[in-house]
Amino acid sequence: MALEHIAESVLPTQFGEFRISVYNAADGKEHVVLSMGDLKGEPPLIRIHSECLTGDALFSLRCDCGAQLEAALEKISDEGRGAVLYLRQEGRGIGLGNKIRAYALQDRGADTVEANHQLGFPADAREYSLAIELLKCLDLCHIKLMTNNPRKFDALKAAGIEVVERVALESGRNPHNAKYLDAKRAKLGHWLTLP
Ligand SMILES: Nc1nc2c(ncn2[C@@H]2O[C@H](COP(=O)(O)OP(=O)(O)OP(=O)(O)O)[C@@H](O)[C@H]2O)c(=O)[nH]1
Ligand SMILES: [Zn+2]
């Protein structure tokens, strides 16, 4: 997939000053790298974050995405270096409308995996070739990865990215997302501790 770097600027945030870079990809979407400090040398902290409009921007409590994004930016800010790769693969790759359809099915009792299946999608329609290409493009072959998702971890390792450390990112559990987090642990194998 060809990546085109199209713009870059400074982005002051509540977590400190980041650089924002925008890349066009062959999927027709604009993907973002939010970075702080010098990424060369010691493996930096990296978060590969899948877009969640509802959680990242609309304060939804149905998932843990917004809390994870905040925690990742905080950790990067504490270390003074690192990056968030913000990938435009909303709803685990099925898009916003379908994610909300899945929510409606969850309201009627399905869990997050069953709802995707009922809509004719796999449990997780994402793939990480774009993330891998971005990491290689940024010369980031040795990283500390902030994730609880074994599938993401394995995909990077299989592509030759050396994940020298996995940093857990458990935050934002609340009564509205408890079932969702339990399904991620039980059905998708996420490394999440029991409450
Ligand atoms: N289809 C679907 N997608 C969801 C649902 N809840 C959140 N998402 C999407 O799930 C994606 C985040 O994936 P997660 O499985 O929560 O976490 P992850 O990124 O794989 O793993 P971590 O690195 O540990 O955060 C985002 O794209 C969200 O929009 C849901 O109920 N159904
Ligand atoms: Zn979310």
Automatic annotation (TrEMBL):
It is an enzyme of class 3 (hydrolase). Pathway: Cofactor biosynthesis; riboflavin biosynthesis; 5-amino-6-(D-ribitylamino)uracil from GTP: step 1/4. Keywords: GTP-binding, Hydrolase, Metal-binding, Nucleotide-binding, Riboflavin biosynthesis, Zinc. Coiled coil: none annotated. InterPro entries: GTP_cyclohydro_II (IPR032677), RibA (IPR000926), RibA-like_sf (IPR036144). GTP binds at R47, I48, H49, S50, E51, Q68, E90, G91, R92, T112, T147, K152. Residues 5-167 form the GTP cyclohydrolase II domain. It comes from the Bacteria. Zn(2+) binds at C52, C63, C65. Binds 1 zinc ion per subunit. PANTHER family: 3,4-DIHYDROXY-2-BUTANONE 4-PHOSPHATE SYNTHASE, GTP CYCLOHYDROLASE II-RELATED. This is GTP cyclohydrolase-2. It comes from Stenotrophobium rhamnosiphilum.
